[in-house]
Please model this.
Amino acid sequence: MEKSIKVFLLFPREQVNKPIAYHLVKDYDIVFNILHAEINNTRGELTVELTGSGENLEKGLDFIREQEVEVRLFPQSIIRDENQCIHCGACTGICPTQALSMDTGTWLLGFDPDKCIVCEQCVTACPVSAIDVNIFE
Amino acid sequence: MAKTFEEINAKIRQGQAVVVTAEEMVELSAEQGVKEAAKRVDVVTTGTFGPMCSSGAFINFGHSEPPIRMSEIYLNDVPASGGIAAVDTYIGATELSRSQGMAYGGAHVIQDLIEGKSVRLEARSPGTDCYPRKKIDTWVSKEDLNQAYLYNPRNAYQNYPAAANTSGKTIYTYMGRLLPECANINYSTSGELSPLLKDPTMRTIGMGTRIFLCGGVGYVAWEGTQYKTIREDLPNGDVYHQGRTVAVMGNLKDMSGDFIRAAVFEGYGVTMYVGIGIPIPVLDEDLAAQLAVSNDHLYTYISDYSAPGHPSLKRVSYAELRSGNAELNGKKVPAAALSSLNKAREIAAALKDWIGSGEFLLQEPIARFPDEQTFKPLMEKEAR
Model:
């Protein structure tokens, strides 16, 4: 199954010239979309969106790490601990996309992952620490 | 056809009492009229599960050998009172951990004890002839404690203002995160299921009232701190009540982690969600009429938490807040509850089961609380 992940790559000074993108595309069939790039005296920073099969993404990330490039994963979605959640609704008022909302019949908290933009506003607004971010599945 | 507590208790003992939750009472009254509902129903159960800062627990540890008069006490590094007798303490829900700050507090200690976890007890003492020991560092769990009971000085607020923020920056309050320029409204109530909104003059709730407290049996112990009686007759004939509170107590050892929860409000601190259910006997039609009042006839005021004194911006019905949006300054603003209606329903249903099974009898108040009382501010006086 195809999926997209956002990653932040940190190139140490010595590794700035490595053709990472080329290998990801050619060897792992990954679509490589640069969102932000910056190179300074000490290092290179790259924020990219990678799209490919789950298996290829895993292999691709391993390849990047082997090049001594540091990989930091962006949160993919929020995760809710069903055992912790008390279904109050404190998160629903500050969720900007209504991804979190109350079922007005059962008054249980509902979550629509398609609407979630992973802004993480809910993580600290939850009074019982029931919400966290999922880094990578 | 008025009923008495004794008559209703006799029915409960025989398993004949008709018990409904406050939500069911609202529905039944709408369908069949208050008169019929008053005749048919004996007890209405209420429930609420919300953050209630004014909570805490009394604990007695028993004596060590040699004994110590604990004057500086920490439970899991949260300070507890060393100001009562040698091995008694009171731990307040909002007290913060010395090492973890706002991430852990008194409420967490109480929850840990209820859930059977071991809690580290550290205490110091100057040492006396009768209590020579100066230091103790050990672990306790609820079975080890002689007494451990919640005593919450102010719970189950009758009605609480909803919160908004007219300022230009986000504020972090005990009413949660309030976005600038009134971009959200937070409120805290179970509305038509809320104990003191359903018996608004507290005819049947007073000292000694037996209640559901955090999964166990508890009692109303006194009027809640800051108890006041505010009544406003609205132009449409509805009545707005606000200000009554209760102090409650109950055995911590009988409580369940399902109905109590330590919580952290970012930028504010630690508090505790407390689950309370109060049974209200349907003594007569007047009381039945109160019990039949629905969310569209129950109101609160939206207050501006960014301004001193939290001035009211607007009156709003709980039905409107429950819709998920409320109108404020001509805009539809998201409204979110801090209390859990789902849990409140669970509590009202559990209490209904207890009474239905004959194991929980109603206790008529030993003393009623004031019909009229105001709340005084703190006037600062010149030092003498």
